Amino acid sequence: MRSEEGDRLPPGQVTTSKFPVLHIDDIPPFNAETWRLRVKGEVGRPLELTYDDFLALPRTVGTSDFHCVTRWSRFDNRWEGVLFRDLAALAQVKPEAKFVSIEAEHGYHTNLPLDIAMGDDVLLAYGHDDAELAPEHGFPLRLVVPGRYAYKSAKWVRVIRFLLTDEPGYWERRGYSNSADPWREERLTADD
Questions:
Q1: Which of 67, 139, 155, 176 might form a disulfide with 182, Cβ 3.0–4.6 angstroms?
Q2: Is residue 136 in some structural domain?
Q3: What CA–CA distance (Å, rounded) separates 92 from 39?
Q4: Contact criterion met (CB below 8 Å) for 41 and 35
Q5: From CA 23, how far away is CA 154, in angstroms rounded?
Q6: Is residue 189 included in any domain, yes or no?
Q7: What is the pLDDT of residue 7?
Q8: Has residue 5 been placed in a domain?
Q9: Per-residue model confidence (pLDDT) at position 3
Q10: H/E run at residue 116
Q11: How crowded is the C-beta side of 76, counted as CA atoms within 13 Å?
Q12: What number of CA atoms fall less than 13 Å from residue 24's CA on the CB side?
């Protein structure tokens, strides 16, 4: 019989109670007066939201596990934010859109098939573990995709583009798996 941890822990991972910090550049400054989230591409209603606009959207709180491609997992993260699918509905995503590109500070971006992004547990988070999301973990806004390795959970999100075709992101162009499924250990392109 497998333990509860074994049922939740993908192959090749170890658990940690810490929340390690990994990113490609410095933590960007945040100015609530100038910050904007833009939603564009294959949408019927392009959006440009201020931080207050974003905070006024329907709030969701969810608990999920977080799996990093560097082989650690952190269980029971409590995230607060807006469901990705709620934002997509507000932007009136066109039926022909099949992918999404998430663009963040420092030129970082990642990509997802739209059906993954529209999952019940995918959200744009501004809170973590009953506090404001820490800057080193992506404040003011982080995408959270529990069913994928954490490089798909972009920090410091600024633009969401809905696409007809896939556009590999920062790590995907450097040999990391495009699908990034931790249960299949899809860490590198050769793993797909």
A1: 67
A2: yes
A3: 10
A4: no
A5: 9
A6: no
A7: 83
A8: no
A9: 40
A10: helix 114-117
A11: 6
A12: 13
**Beta strand 72-83 with 14-15: parallel, antiparallel or unpaired?**
parallel
Give dist(CA 23, CA 186) in Å, integer: 20
Cα–Cα distance for residue pair 71/151, rounded to 1 Å: 12
Give residue 53's domain range: 32-166
What are the pLDDT digits (tens) for 2-34?
345 558 999 999 999 988 787 777 899 999 999
CA distances to 5, 129, 174, 188 from 110, rounded to whole Å, are: 29, 24, 12, 15
Whether residue 7 lies inside any domain: the answer is no
Give the full edge-to-edge strand order of the sheet including 109-113: 47-49, 37-41, 157-163, 99-104, 109-113
Phi/psi-derived region of residue 121, left when phi > 0, alpha when psi is between -120 and 50, beta in every other case: alpha
Q: pLDDT for 45-79, tens place per residue?
A: 999 999 999 999 999 999 999 999 999 999 999 99
Domain of 59, CATH number, reads: 3.90.420.10
Half-sphere exposure of 174 (CA within 13 A, CB side): 8
| 139, 133 contact by CB (below 8 A) | yes
